[in-house]
Amino acid sequence: MNFMDVVTARVLTKDYGSLRAVDAIDFAIAKGECFGFLGPNGAGKTTVMRIIYCFMPPTSGEVKVFGMNVAERPSDIKRRIGVMPQEDNLDPDLTVFENLIVYARYFDTPKKVSSGLASELLGFVDLQGKADVKIGNLSGGMKRRLILARSLINNPELLVLDEPTTGLDPHSRHAVWDKLNLLKAKGATLILTTHYMEEAEKLCDRVAIMDRGKILTIDSPGRLMQMHGGNLEDVYLKLTGLRLLEGARLES
Fold first, then answer.
1. Is residue 51 within 8 Å of residue 12, measured between CB atoms?
2. pTM of the shown model
3. Phi-psi region at 196: left, alpha or beta (left = phi > 0; alpha = psi -120 to 50)
4. Dist. CA 150–CA 5, nearest whole Å
5. How many domains are contained in the chain?
6. CATH code of residue 217
7. How far apart, in whole angstroms, are the C-alpha atoms of residue 166 and residue 141?
8. How far from each other are the two terminal CA atoms of the chain, in whole angstroms?
9. Are 57 and 179 within one domain?
10. In this model, does residue 245 exceed pLDDT 80?
């Protein structure tokens, strides 16, 4: 492990019964890097993310975050990371501001401190005018920005973003990208999954392209496009298509 690596995985494997969702993968993510996992549905991306943020343990292999094993010190790791999940899990009975205040309690943040943080974060995601609005009255883009703000309430050193802009219109997607680029500029370490190749090109320093639980390649979007030709989507389709053909040959 490089002393600058925030996350390392060695022979990471995850099984769900007879299904191998993640198949003996290795990777390392450096401090201040934006690292993306790309792949079709069922490739294992979200499973890897959930292991990183200590939602579930690996079946075998090892994952360390800040040098700590996820299977041994999940509480210590969780205090230092922020998570933006795929799903909208905001509390509909609370206002925008209250959602942030209540979430801050999980980190034992005093109310006086969390109130100031909540106001600051609502300003950061351009929702300061919606503080007293109930969740049901927000657009999809506003909800995603609020979930981003919530993931930052503990001032995390690592931010894990699972499909951060899925379902958003182009304007809302770009608004989220702007905020993530600001966090990058401040030195935050970001890990994301996405189906949007343009998103990976705009945000990621490096990407891992996955399929059927394996990592096919890890490199910067620029180098991958230079090596394989075309844009990142062309590279992605080429590599996952080759994997599909390989699987068909093995089964025949």
1. yes
2. 0.89
3. beta
4. 25
5. 2
6. 3.40.50.300
7. 10
8. 41
9. yes
10. no
Task: Classify residue 84 by its DSSP letter.
Answer: E
- Residue 157's identity, in one-letter code, is E
Q: What is the mean pLDDT of residues 222-232?
A: 92
Q: What is the DSSP string of 220-239?
A: -HHHHHHHH-S-HHHHHHHH
As a whole number of angstroms, the distance between CA 145 and CA 139 comes to 10
Residue (of 182, 184, 180, 183) closest to 196 by Cα position: 180
Range of the domain at 112: 85-156
Q: Which residues contact 74 (CB under 8 A, 6 or more apart)?
A: 54
Q: Do 183 and 204 contact (CB within 8 A), yes or no?
A: no
Domain identity same for 73 and 176: yes
Find, among 84, 91, 2, 89, the residue nearest to 50 by Cα: 84
**30 contacts: CB under 8 Å, gap ≥ 6:** 2, 4, 5, 6, 189
* Residue 178 pLDDT grade (very low, low, confident, very high; cuts 50, 70, 90): very high
The two structure tokens encoding residue 110: 């005093």
pLDDT tens, position by position, 117-134: 999 999 999 999 999 999
Which pLDDT score, from 0 to 100, does residue 229 have? 86
